[in-house]
Amino acid sequence: MNNRYKTIILLITTLWCGIGQCLEAVNLFKCEDFENIINIRLTPTGKERLTGCFSDQGAWMGFTIPETDKPTGGFCGPFSINSRQWFATSLLALKDSKGQLKTITSNYTPGKIAMSLQTEKGVVNEEIIFADSRTALLKITGNEEHTIALQLLSLMKT
Question: Binning pLDDT at 50, 70 and 90, where does residue 113 land?
């Protein structure tokens, strides 16, 4: 076998092994590895400058996780990135017969924000993801049957 064929076989083998290692490297990281890498905790009053919010898919709106000492019963926002103003502290608040639900856990991972809230009978989970640049989807799930009020809050005045 001449050197030209040996070189071609060596090159193909090297490429084949390299591609295999690259494909393995793609699966090394999960979204959970980057949990809360950006601090997006803020309960807006309408006057503060935004330092970070959850936005995805090229959207011009964003949401934040409420600060621990200023709960809202849901996610904060939306915030208009274009006009740099808050439309609401929290557009939707979850309540039960004892009042506003208390946050147990909340986190940001690339692609979604999530929150768990304590009810009288268990836990309710909320998630926000962006379907596209104009649509944010809020998913609410629970571990038992709950009666929860969804209170639509008024928009902020600027």
Answer: very high
Which residue bears the tokens 């996610």? 75
Query: Residues 6 or more apart from 142 whose CB is under 8 A from it?
Result: 119, 122, 123, 124, 125, 148
What torsion, rounded to 10 degrees, do the Cα atoms 109, 136, 92, 85 define?
Answer: 90
Q: Would you list the DSSP string of the chain? A: --HHHHHHHHHHHHHHHHHHHHHHHHTT--GGGGTT-S--B----SSSPP---B--TT-SEEEEBPPTTS--SS-EEEEETTTTEES-SBSEEEEETTEEPEEEEEEEETTEEEEEEE-SSSEEEEEEEEEETTEEEEEEEESS----EEEEPPPPP-
| pTM over cut 0.70 | yes
Task: Report d(CA 137, CA 92) in Å as an integer.
Answer: 13
Residue 17, amino acid: C
Of the candidates 9, 73, 83, 13, the one whose C-alpha atom is nearest the C-alpha of residue 46 is 83
In this prediction, residues 131-138 reach a mean pLDDT of 91
Are 81 and 63 spatial neighbours (Cβ–Cβ below 8 Å)?
Answer: no
